[in-house]
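Ticket reopened. Same input as before:
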Amino acid sequence: MNSDIAVSIKNVRKSFRLPHEREDSIKMKVLNIFKKHDKGYDNYEALKGIDLDIKKGEFIGILGRNGAGKSTLLKIIAEIYQPTRGSIEVSGKLVPFIELGVGFNPNLSGRDNVYLNGAMFGFSRDEVDKMYNSIVDFAELEDFMDQKLKNYSSGMKVRLAFSVAIKANADILLLDEVLAVGDAAFKKKCYAYFNNLKANKKTIIFVTHGMGAVKEYCDRAVLLENGKVAFDGDPAEAADRYNGLFKKEEKKVVPENAKKDVQIKLVKINVTKKHISLNIDLKNNTSKTVDDIIFGVSCSRSGRLVGGFQSGGDKPFSVEAGSKETAEIAFDNIFGNGTYSIAVNLRDAKTKDIIDSLPNAVEFDNQFGSSNYFPVEFKVK
Amino acid sequence: MFAKLKEKYRYSLILLRELVRTDFKVKYQDSALGYLWSALRPLFLFAVMYIAFVKVMRVGADIDHWPVALLLGLVLWQFFGDIAKGNLKSIVSHGGLLRKLKFPRYIIVISSSVSALITLAINIVVVAVFAVINQLPFTPNLLLVIPVILLVFVFGLGVAFFLSAIYVKFRDIEHIWDIFMQGLFYGSAIIFPMSLVLRINGIGTLLAQILLMNPVSMAIQEIRHFAVNPVIPSLSSIAGENWWLMALPLVITVLFFVAGVFFFKKRSPNFAEDV
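Engineering reply: fixed in the latest deploy. New output:
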């Protein structure tokens, strides 16, 4: 393995057996032998062949929807799970921070848990003694160390766990979504520590759903989808693609009474200081020409409707049977700065029934407005 | 060389120490006498057995120092049972740890066995005190208790490795084991002397030979013979000309240990997922 590679993941596959029934007793196992027709379990492929080389000193984010395979991959890197196929090579000391406090026992005090957790990271009692005060300081839990851990809030637990983990002098730090529990002050401390690691050329592998953190701290981001690498590269683009995954679901939310003779295929947007123009690609899937289409456009910001209109029935649009057309709609850019979301729908001019609807057709970032919400000046009389 | 070994196992030792400490604290922190009760369990069992079997049913009353032999047998059996039962659920109960950290899994088994060792130590002291009261003559043969304990320990560990690994997948092994141990306890010559078995017409000797294949029974029998009362027959006399019967329990012990370790090692990569 190349000496500047920290973690090398080669064609890693991981399958889990999902038994049809709980086969957790010898009695069940014996009975199942007689049920020859039923294999007894399904194979669930969590990872379908991952190839990844993580360089030393990289701060890499791993993104994906729940169930995409992120935690499984992390656990394989940490050698907690074994890959079904493929291999992992790790160079350097790897410290996993997966779930709150490795080995934390809720029935013991915070103090006892520090020693226990320290042992997990390879520190003898003497070594923990020397670090004890600085751990408690970093966690800001001086008054609570003799309380039982079950009385701690999850924020307190993660502070304690993290304070011990950072002493472990990791070459490679694996983080799995746990930091989401801490408050803003704690997150600040964490990221300060991460920057420190980065400066020392340590590797950080970070699983998260916070795209802001990804864009700000990661050098590289990998998007996992259904057990495969869907994207590997620029964090900003990975974050956008991640957000796009949710939009694909939203597109399916169309009112049930929509006629759908004509479908909105794609909406493209062009934003200038004066105008915003939409190019709406339509397709007629039927054998009849559809006439009298009018367009409804609504514009929202942070989920709240800012403005909307309907194109006039005086210029109804039509699409011939089985063909594609592009409609061009332009309106003034009266919006203030910010991120907006545009929804487009098609209606029948006469009946006003909805033909098709795209709730989150396109987003745009308006830089041309003024910095306040109201787009025009107003005077007080 | 020692230093190198120490370095290799440094992590394991640190972890072991903390796990033992933790298990102890969690189990007994809220009960003052808690630990003492479980440590002295053989003593209480002995009191009951003594009254029931020796005083009432006159079993073993004909053998000098039989009470010491009885107590010693109970203590050793308890030791074996503690290692086996104490470890049965150990992997599963440390499941949280297993799923978050990579470390040698056998440490869990060893840490669960340490508490059995400590209990044994306390019990041996009790037996010693009792022996003095019973006016047992102290001979150098008493030192044989060390290899005997070692034998039971190794065998117990082998069984523990099997049980703990099996329990991860098949939870009903717990019940099977409980029943098995109960049966074995009453079936082995622990609460009654082997002489009763040998007296059975025709198959007495054969039966005794079979019973003594169990390393724990053999261990108990030998220490009784050498340290308590030579009247209690040793395996060598029961085996007669089948000298290999004497080696059999030892072979079984080693076999169980090695097979147990292998089985455990083979299953341990999957613990994190199955537990």
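The helical segments of chain A are 26-33, 70-77, 110-120, 125-139, 154-165, 184-199, 211-217, 235-250. Chain A is about 25% helix and 40% strand. Please confirm and we'll close it.
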